[in-house]
Amino acid sequence: MSDASLITREPEAQFGDYVALLKPRVMSLVVFTALVGLLVAPVPVHPMIGFTAILFIAVGAGASGALNMWWDADIDALMRRTAKRPVPAGRVGAEEAAAIGVALSTISVVMLGLATNFVAAGMLAFTIFFYAVIYTMWLKRWTPQNIVIGGAAGAFPPVIGWAAATGTMPLEAWGMFALIFLWTPPHFWALALFMKSDYEDAGVPMLTVTHGRKSTRAHILAYTAVLAPAAVALGLTSIGGPVYLATALAMNAWFLKGAFAIWRRDEMQAELDRYVTEKAFFRFSLYYLFAHFGALLADAALRVTGAL
Amino acid sequence: MAIRAEHDLHRRRRSRNVGLGLVLAGFVAVVFGLSVVKIRMLGASQAFDHVLRPEMLEQDQ
């Protein structure tokens, strides 16, 4: 059977290719925000159940990533940033990615339901459907607001984490949803301003291309102006506390200032200093989200220890 | 009959096979651990097994 090597000409997929299919970098954000959602909920969770819940929320996120790579293989192949992904590079077959996506979606939803409750499992199923079908298959190639819709998919994990702990989804959980949902557009559009990407060749409508860069700058300011009060308001709910309020006030003031500076600039100025304001705003936006969720965790820890 | 000779294919697919093996072992461990925790959370449970257990009788009877 030594001629088998003659038949398998395509590059052999390694285990790492299947891991890459699950978008591990997106998964790390999902794990962090879902964990905060689970820990700030007012009901204590057994560590093993909490671990299982986070694990299968992460697997569900990975499954929707695999479904995204299956559906988007044609446009991924056209863009430099994504051309090396396992499906467009030919290491993993498209149908194989689809099968893995469907199988892991089912496993993650069933296991989350068995480990916690079916409110959380239903929410995870809806999130996978929302990201894979509503975002990837429908809206991504159709509207320049695709980032806003995709941001909603990324904003569900803390709600699922909270539901895993309590079986409910009250205002506080949706406050965390609003924080990520409103944060995603300014975060991503700042990146789109200085990363001249090849979305245009792939036919994906990006705001910078369809409405121009000036309009994108105005959009960043508008979303940041809505984000700031929403972020501070979360501190006034039952999960807020002094650490969160102080963090939110300081960081949102800076974020608004940055968005205002981006709005006031034009492309000429930005080209001259190589997008230094946009790059600083983008870098800050990463710390912004991490600090807000970290502060929620800190206040929850203070409440548990009785300091609040 | 076991395949004795190691073909090139086995070597190239080793990382997939080992990886999948570890994932499946991990899944078994998670389901087992979850079962232990869930069953313990039910609290002590006992039933009559051929012998009368007075502590299980309801107080008013």
Describe this entry's structure for a reader.
The complex is a heterodimer of chains A (308) and B (61). With 308 residues, chain A is mainly α. Chain A has two domains: 17-167, UbiA prenyltransferase (Tetracycline Repressor, domain 2, Orthogonal Bundle); 170-308. In chain A, 76% of the residues lie in helices and 0% in strands. Chain A contains 16 helices and no strands. The N and C termini of chain A lie far apart (71 Å). Chain B has 61 residues and is an all-alpha fold. The termini of chain B are far apart. The chains are: A mainly alpha (308), B mainly alpha (61).
Order of helical and strand elements of chain B: HH
Total DSSP E strands of chain B:
0
The helix-and-strand class of chain B reads mainly alpha
Number of helical regions of chain B: 2
The number of strands of chain A is 0
- CATH first level of the largest domain in chain A: Mainly Alpha
Helix fraction of chain A by DSSP (H/I, runs of at least 4): over 70%
Tally of individual domains of chain A = 2
Instruction: Describe the main β-sheet of chain A briefly.
Output: none
Low-confidence stretches of chain A: none
Key descriptive features of the protein:
heterodimer, A: 308 residues, mainly alpha, Tetracycline Repressor, domain 2, 2 domains, 16 helices, B: 61 residues
Describe the structure concisely for a colleague.
Chain A is mainly α.
